[in-house]
Amino acid sequence: MSTIKPKEVANDSEPVDDGTRELRLHHPQNKSDMDVTYGNDNNEDENVPDGHDPEEEENDEDDENDEDDEDDEDDEEEKNNGNGSDSSGDSIIETDPFDYDKSKQIKLIELDEKLKAKLDEGVDTLVEACPKGLDSIVQHFTFQIANIESMLAQPDTYLSEPVQIGGYRFNLMIVVRKGQDRILSAYLKGRPVDEKENEIWSFPVHFAFNVWDADDITCHKVNFSKFRFSQRVDDWGFVKFLDSKFPTDEKFFRKNKVNITVYVRVIDDYTNCLYSNYVDYDSKKSTGFVGIENQGATCYLNSLLQSYYFTKVFRKKVYKIPTDDEIKLEMDSYEDYKHQHKTVSLALQRIFYRLQTSNVAINSLELTHSFGWTTADAFTQHDVQELNRILMDRLETKMKGTEIDGCLNDIFVGKMKSFIRCVNVDYESSRTEDFWDIQLNVKGLKDIKESFDNYVELELLDGENKYDASGFGLQDAEKGVIFESFPDVLHIQLKRYEYDFETDNMVKIHDRYEFFDEIDLKPYLDKTSPGYEDENWNYKLHCVLVHQGDVSGGHYYAMIKPTEKDEWYKFDDDIVTRVTPYTVFEDGFGCGPPKNIDRSMTREEYQNYIIKHHTSAYMLVYFRESKIPHVLADVEEADVPEHVKQQIKYENQEDAKIKKEREEMHLYINFKIFTDETFAKYQGFDLGPDEDNLQHFNEDLFDDGSFPIKLKLLKTQAWESIYETICKFSNKDPKVFANKLRLWSITKRSNNTYRPERPIESMVSDIDNQTIESIALLLENGTSRRKYAGSNVPVVLSLYLEDACRDLKYLASQCGGIPKGLQDYEERLESLVIVANKKCDASLEPIGDDSNILIMVKLFDQRKQTLKGVSHIVLPSDAKIDFIAKFLQLVFNVDDGEQISFIEEISFSQRVRVRTDLSLYQNEISSGDIVCASFDDDQDKELQFQDAESYYAFLETRVHFYISPLKRIDEDEEDFVFVETDPSKVAASDSIIDIWISSNSSYLDICTFIGKEVGISPEYIKLSVLSNGNKTDLKSDFNFSTALQGFTKNSALKLYYETLNIPLKSFESMQLYRIYWVGNGICKEEKHDFYLPSSSTLEDVVSKLQSKLKSEIDLNAVFCWVPDRQHKIKRIVKLEDSIDNHDVLIVGLFPQYKELFFNDSRDVILIAGFQCYSSIENTHGLPFVFDLVKGEKLPETYVRLHKLLGLSGKEFNSARIGITNSSVVEFIDKNNPASNSIELFNYFENGKYMLVIDHLDRKGRRSSHHSSIMIR
């Protein structure tokens, strides 16, 4: 390579951590950053110079660290003066980048051939090699400092003349700082030769400084590093390159002259990311692609999505899924639009289109939300293969009945045949099935070819393992699999995880395992398959999914070849970079078992090794070579559904508006204004819905018209302009209404309620001269309600708007203007408001003295079972409550003789009765208080709420319930649950009941609600809840009030109900029994749960069990025992015995055991046994009964015991068998030939011992190192 040109890449060259403390330190502990050697006749091989004590060296380093802190301060000071260099990346000097010291303090010198040859050796030994897969150019130059003392006397920055390497120029830069005692700092400065103004550039370099005695080249010292130079940071080096306080460095100062050979390796980094820290890295500009943000632990999902995105034929098919009717653009607000549920199909279409068009990394929140995942699910690493399969199932379901039905099979599904073929007769049994991926073994195999060979390897069935061929009897046979077809896109799962029986854990296989860029799969194809002879079965690698970590967790990323070109990219969450083919394969292969780690490894080498050891491919994606043009055909704009493009365009526009609003947020004040109009539509506590109250707010509870008016006004506007804005918002003429309106501050009282406090006009003397900002500052510093939500969220001030035309007194005066027969309270109020607004001759009454106060009035309407606001009323504080009652009688056309009662709404949980014969002052009612009226003569005893207090109590305790019929009927209840079979009633019984119920309701109250909805008697209804798929029945005395304490109004409790065949009380009197059927082996037990009367016998259990097993059970052969909590036998149960107090039973067909139990035998004894792992205290599984035969040798006993337990051959052979008295155990050495003569009968004859089987608990195993996935 003759010339290397600078790359135009993003500004990404912050100082890079090479794995050490700080590259510029004089004595880093990592030899990869710096190496020091000296040639000296007296101490050639010594690491510590003469007279330097190692203990003192540690102290020196501590001192040095202290001095480094001081140096940082000096650096900052010198940086401001245009001298020095610091880690911020600012340039050392402010002059032209290629200007240099004309005083020639640093001279470029020519060396004789002998010295040149000696220094040439450093190219390979001192400068780190070029990363594999990249090219580089390396050169070295020697500079001489002829007078060190002269430099020290004049602190400054000294720059050598530039030298050119490829397309770059470099200078050696020596810095002498003021206040530092005899220290030289050395840096390499580099920039492109043809740099243009404002050009963004960066390039990586390996370099070394070899400082040596001008008279003795063997006396030298080397510092080396690597760095990515950029327009922001164009120099890098060592602060304490030479420090006179170290004796080894002092030698150079005494000589006063040194030569410095600078080795520079410039790397042609077409990946644009070598040694980058990605601070300002732009994936789109650098690669043309964007990444996907990690939600917490969704890197595995991100890598899978990128793989599917670049399988372009799949992307096209996903775009064709009909999703145009799923969400609407026309919604009341952008928030409502965003909250619309999206199916998996639509979410995937949108993700693909965003990946196709976005300039920044996207997120996958929509997709995970479409799965039904919570934040906790997003922080859980799931199994990629399982997720892949579930995702495909969802898409397949959505595609059914469309033009693309079955297309996924055409892309991803192949066929394989499992067969057993007889060797000596013409007989074959086979089964052909589809596969979505191929799982290949890794353990003990060298590469993917060996894995395929292993996959199709034939197993010979002969000897005792002969195959029973129908019509031919037992025959020698070959068992195996063969592929009948391979898909266009082949997913290969590498089995990097296995179960370790010794540790009882899943472990990751770190073996080095190679895969190829191209593989011919024809050898694994059935020769009778279509196209076997004349088609190309070569497959090309296009994607490698990599896991970096261990079984307990780690990180996932993908390396993908997006096109037919041999160009690979790494998709690591939100960052996309170009990578070399060498990286693709070496990162994916793994590196085998750990090698010996010794002290000679540097920290960087050790860290790199650990990362490489834990990094390996777990999934490969191959494209069939002949189908690549089809699989990678370009996705055109026309392929994208129009509704998806419209949605994304609309969202981009709205997001841009929001961004602009946030940027301009500091220019505006935001208001929430509660009005008499919103108050009249509001049903709840306080003045209106409180979106900030997370405990009690739920948007669905409130009328849309009850929410406060939201305004955003420029701070510089005059305060009076707010009235004009409100009028326009309310479609009122400002000229008519502006002087009828008055704004009040809202205060948060000590009981956490919000009430109008004072008119704004009463808070300032010169209201006409106030601006929005000045009033806002007044309110913020005062008692007005304000929402604090951080610097990125605007301040929101809450106000109440008093409208003189809606004063209760004025409304009462307009009663003559509405129809006399109008009786509905809400209709009368609305009609009066219309009349009052038309006439609009009311005036605002004075507020501020001790006489007049403003009261907010609500009304409980018993007929409609509502409690809503009416309006406000301004009255003298000495007016009696009866005065309000008279106006209410007029407004709602109620007879004078009808009694009206009042309560004051003190807080969310407190109300007090108001005496009508006392004044407002005497009732301790002040300005801003809320009173609620109700007409006492308007009683209907059948209604749920009889008065305002009971309705307030409901508002306080109401909880949202979703009540559904339970579709799943557990085995233990199936005889008692009624299943509706009448088609005309099924639909009604399947409906979900969406209801608000008081948490003080009893079990019977809730069952009564359900019964009324579905027409079922409440005593036959049983309630339950589901948690993680597990059902928990609620008892009839369940206390909902206690269980729902702290339950927020924004949450919903999901209840499930079942209809019983018998009353719930009768069902609850029954007992749940757990029965283990061990007919197939003690370790192959079948668990069954039954509800039975407590008086039941074992015979009743067997009868029930018989119906479950759907087979006859010979009662004479039934043998049953009861386990204890230690997994040992507690007692034997007879058929006629009651099972009361025995909620767990083990049942099997053991006629020989039954005979022995009831009849003594001298030649056979019955013993108890149990299972454990590692220790006899660590019991597990089911205890068992076993018979020992007199004279039977151990091998024969083992055969019968193996059959009884039902373990696999591998598990039984690894198990230990012992004899124990529950305190001491003695295990039998099965590998000792002498053990074959043992007769266990002789050890157990006295009946003091038990048999123990020590093996792993199979029920405790994890099938995978990942949590199971649910896409809801």
TrEMBL record:
Record's catalysed reaction(s): Thiol-dependent hydrolysis of ester, thioester, amide, peptide and isopeptide bonds formed by the C-terminal Gly of ubiquitin (a 76-residue protein attached to proteins as an intracellular targeting signal)
Biased composition (Low complexity): 81-91
One annotated GO biological process: protein deubiquitination
Domain named USP: residues: 290-625
Entries under Pfam families matching the protein: MATH_2 (PF22486), UCH (PF00443), USP7_C2 (PF14533), USP7_ICP0_bdg (PF12436)
PROSITE patterns tied to this protein: MATH, USP_1, USP_2, USP_3
Gene3D superfamilies associated with the record: Apoptosis, Tumor Necrosis Factor Receptor Associated Protein 2, Chain A (2.60.210.10), Cysteine proteinases (3.90.70.10), Phosphatidylinositol 3-kinase Catalytic Subunit, Chain A, domain 1 (3.10.20.90)
EC number(s) given by UniProt: 3.4.19.12
Keyword Hydrolase: yes
Biased composition (Acidic residues): 42-78
Bias (Basic and acidic residues) ranges: 1-10, 18-34
Keywords for this protein: Hydrolase, Protease, Thiol protease, Ubl conjugation pathway
GO molecular function terms noted in the UniProt entry: cysteine-type deubiquitinase activity
Top enzyme category: hydrolase
Region described as Disordered: 1-97
Coiled coil (UniProt feature): none
All copies of domain MATH, residue ranges: 138-264
GO CC terms in record: cytosol; nucleus
InterPro entries cross-referenced by the UniProt entry: MATH/TRAF_dom (IPR002083), Papain-like_cys_pep_sf (IPR038765), Peptidase_C19 (IPR050164), Peptidase_C19_UCH (IPR001394), TRAF-like (IPR008974), USP (IPR028889), USP7_ICP0-binding_dom (IPR024729), USP_C (IPR029346)
Cited SUPFAM superfamilies: Cysteine proteinases (SSF54001), TRAF domain-like (SSF49599)
Family the entry assigns: Belongs to the peptidase C19 family.
PANTHER family for this protein: UBIQUITIN CARBOXYL-TERMINAL HYDROLASE, UBIQUITIN CARBOXYL-TERMINAL HYDROLASE 7
Name of the protein: ubiquitinyl hydrolase 1
Organism: Pichia kudriavzevii (Yeast)
Source taxonomy: Eukaryota, Fungi, Dikarya, Ascomycota, Saccharomycotina
